């Protein structure tokens, strides 16, 4: 082992040495197959060195790769390696799809291997067990029986070496490494049973007459059953990653790009940033980009869960993996390879699927001590049988120790949490909900209060001007022109509504001087030499502008869920402009779902109280925070947290970043896929609040599933181990057979995986 | 019988010492990268010593086809990585505070540990 490491760690320096040459001379990496020992390194390196054109060849034994420097084709190198008696292939950066194919291939091979090993073990174990049940006792009394059982013992040893080799090798290596795992228990259990049986056969005199019983059938059966359990588990585990498979499957394999003025089909890996890409109707969009020509509707449901196709035209962003429905589109690739939204989503979902929620910590702590503890229990159990057990004490001691070692299942405990997280996070991704990690998943399931930012979350986030009321001698168009000119530099959604309204009326905007944005209140600046102030009631009061005569009108606008804004020139009010942001179609229904889940829903808005109240009433929300300045959003989160609530905050992920970060779980709601995936605990890919309700439903279902798994695994071990040790014997005369223990152990972890797979059938929209 | 009981107690003591009390000397990390093989139920090397404030790149190569070995989890850093079979997969870790940070498979059967020492200690 040590020499392997030295060669592994020595090599990179060697490679670094040659990297200077690599600037001028090409370098390639070959994957070597069939190199079983460190001595192969020299053979392979010298075989490659003999190839004309090779300047340098260095093999990394641990990675089984060889780095070749020189002007030489890969085919020639592969041939040289093959002639030396090994296999070689070119390595390249593989796409997720290729990696997945390889993983599935490896799983299939492993599955077949386990079934093969199972058949061999059960091929011996089942006849032996039937013999024991039908013919009678498997005892050793005569010389003839000794010879016969001796042969069976050797056959069992062969089974152990062929079908159970991985248990014994794994057990030996981990014990040598001061750690213990499932292999250790199986190896010790089956090894004890076999060794005892061999002692009975070889030197029967050291064992009392009554205890001369052999347990070869137990050894063979246990190895067979556990291999069967592992095989079924590999199958079931494959299904837990179906969601990620579906996402990976969305990636197109080729793209039609313009090269030298012609359209050519190239593999997706060769698409460059800036390439012009053609997508015909019915084709998948290969990478992210901006439409440069054409018009079409695009189905984004596979990523966002949003069923309605989205219209795309010149200047619009399109996302790789979505489906072009109606027209032909030409677009410029803006993100390719690992940078595409789909690739980032896949990597985030994978990461989250492998992370653990805190609920699994206790199980982790227990499994850390589990195996040695079981070994100790087995020794104690054997000692008790030897000291106070009935005759034949030795046989009872061996059976109880073996059964304890075999029945204990650290795997069920270890699998309980990760399997459910795997399925739950995948399920959420299918609904267009990206959960960052296990912690977010668990906290989301416990949320008691949810703060919803109004603009863009509950509403469309695209406000429209509904009324322009000039005050004084100016007409509508003139005041709108002044307001729009002033607001054209502002990013605020309400400002954009004013500018759009002016553009819709073909009003030409002027120029603004001294523009100043007063956060949460409004803006000021000079247009046409007039000093303008545009904003809410508070801004007007702060600047002592008289608005009293128009308050009633403003209040009536607010009562209709519109936001009134005041435009003042100098110290005089010149207009009242109302803007309304329509509520998203399904917000009311989604909020009801949250409330039905027992969650306290609170709306937060920068709007004035009256508008906020009107919107809240339309939504069926009783609580709201109005007139909240952007920087105060997080203090509202803190306020609810102080009341003992576990607070979820939903916002657009950009303006609300501090509040999202402070909340127990921050939900970023995106329209389409243009979302700040990095900033929130949970990202909702579609704009609908149903995504929020789905996220909470999935997280609750997942946590419930984890609890069931953990409970099952704990109970199984807590009940199984004492029964195996023989606690029931004094009362009922019952002692578990090691074979039954083997079957129970094999199927306990399978049960956990199967229960996790049940989550795949969960429909968040029903909850 | 007495002998057997004493042997049993000694066996228990041996299990406790061997699996729980014994601290294995760690492989000190010289360069910023260590290659770890995942095979036969163990990470090798399983114990890696490094200096605080040093970033670390671990290259995992999985040789064990069992799905148990397919993910390595660094719980303290919320980092996990899927390990393809017979291929190197790099895991980058940020500079760390002194302490012991375990890394495991999802089921805690494969176990390894990063031992991060104060920069001054490591020099001595």
UniProtKB/TrEMBL annotation, chain A:
Which segments cross the bilayer? 118-135, 147-164, 185-203, 215-236, 366-388, 394-417, 710-729, 735-753
| UniProt-listed InterPro entries | ATPase_P-typ_cyto_dom_N (IPR023299), ATPase_P-typ_P_site (IPR018303), ATPase_P-typ_TM_dom_sf (IPR023298), ATPase_P-typ_transduc_dom_A_sf (IPR008250), ATPase_P-type_domA (IPR059000), HAD-like_sf (IPR036412), HAD_sf (IPR023214), HMA_dom (IPR006121)
Alphabetical keyword list: ATP-binding, Cell membrane, Copper, Copper transport, Ion transport, Membrane, Metal-binding, Nucleotide-binding, Phosphoprotein, Translocase, Transmembrane, Transmembrane helix, Transport
Q: HMA domain spans which residues?
A: 26-89
The topology of this chain with respect to the membrane is:
Multi-pass membrane protein
Documented EC number(s): 7.2.2.8
Q: What is its main location?
A: membrane
* SUPFAM superfamilies in UniProt: Calcium ATPase, transduction domain A (SSF81653), Calcium ATPase, transmembrane domain M (SSF81665), HAD-like (SSF56784), HMA, heavy metal-associated domain (SSF55008)
- Look up keyword Transmembrane helix and say if it applies: yes
For the keyword Translocase, the answer is: yes
Family, per entry: Belongs to the cation transport ATPase (P-type) (TC 3.A.3) family. Type IB subfamily.
Task: Report what the protein is called.
Answer: Copper-exporting P-type ATPase
Q: What is the lineage of its organism?
A: Bacteria, Pseudomonadati, Pseudomonadota, Gammaproteobacteria, Oceanospirillales
UniProtKB/TrEMBL annotation, chain B:
Transmembrane residues, as ranges? 6-22
On the tree of life, the source organism's domain of life is: Bacteria
Keywords, comma-separated and alphabetical? Membrane, Transmembrane, Transmembrane helix
Name all EfeO-type cupredoxin-like domain ranges.
Answer: 12-116
In Pfam terms, one family for this protein is Cupredoxin_1
- What is the name of the protein in this document? Cupredoxin-like domain-containing protein
Organism the protein comes from: Marinobacterium sediminicola
